[in-house]
Design goal:
five-stranded antiparallel sheet; 11 strands; 24% helix; 28% strand
Length: 260
């Protein structure tokens, strides 16, 4: 399987697991074109197509998979300055973008853009329903070589963190520090989501969430060796906390009081 097929399959799997969306194949002449749409208002939030590179201004002799997504018109210019994002193919270029599914963009960033498109096109009922969902618990990895989390929390006890899944306000985030620490060190609460940040002089945008520190844990409390016995063998990207681990983490609330 080539990278294009990988990207297509990963997007379809994410849409199915996150939104319950089943792709629709509407055109006999283009049997692999896959529409992702909301079931209540029937609006599209994604369209996967296989096209020849020359049709979107690229070079190459083999078909590639692309994904059309809707975005805030004010962010279109910023997004199109990023590698792997082009003016929308066959759609309104002021409101849509085309994302290459050939590995040009990390899949976590593709998921983030897909989430943005889903939210922009969702009905009020869908958005209200999602906000009323029970608070969820997430495991999010942090690299101690790149992040000084203690310093970043600072006096305010809050930190901006890259948001690449469907976190909602009120969700719980457990920060897992990678090797050489290899343990859960922080419990946080999501205070705000969908915060756009320009990350460099080229205008590249990143979607962030604001985390509020709730409590700290000693590294000996929940190391990876113990997590493996509770259903987590690795934390490579943001993921839900499995029930077995969540049950053990909930027991710690009384032992490690909240930070105020």
């Amino acid at each position: 399987m080539n990278n294009c097929d990988d990207g297509r399959d990963l997007v379809l799997r994410f849409a199915a697991e996150t939104y319950g969306t089943r792709p629709e194949y509407l055109w006999k002449r283009s049997p692999r074109y896959a529409v992702l749409r909301h079931q209540d208002n029937q609006k599209w939030y994604g369209l996967i197509m296989n096209v020849m590179p020359e049709t979107i201004g690229l070079s190459g002799a083999e078909e590639i998979d692309i994904l059309n997504l809707k975005c805030d018109p004010q962010a279109v210019g910023f997004l199109r300055s990023q590698k792997g994002i082009l003016p929308a193919y066959h759609m309104n270029k002021e409101k849509w973008i085309t994302v290459l599914l050939d590995g040009s963009i990390a899949m976590e960033n593709v998921y983030s853009l897909l989430e943005m498109s889903f939210s922009i096109t969702a009905s009020r009922t869908t958005l209200k329903t999602r906000k009323m969902l029970p608070n969820q618990a997430w495991l999010v990895p942090a690299n101690p070589f790149y992040y000084d989390v203690e310093q970043d929390f600072g006096a305010s006890g809050t930190i901006l963190w890259k948001q690449n899944r469907t976190m909602l306000q009120g969700d719980t985030v457990y920060l897992y520090m990678a090797a050489p620490v290899s343990a859960i060190l922080y419990q946080c609460r999501v205070e705000e989501t969908d915060i756009l940040e320009k990350t460099d002089s080229n205008g590249t945008l990143r979607r962030n969430m604001r985390l509020k520190l709730v409590r700290r844990f000693p590294k000996e409390l929940m190391p990876l060796s113990r997590m493996k016995k509770l259903g987590v063998s690795a934390v490579r990207s943001a993921r839900h906390v499995p029930p077995e681990l969540k049950e053990e983490l909930d027991k710690l609330d009384g032992e490690y009081p909240e930070k105020h």
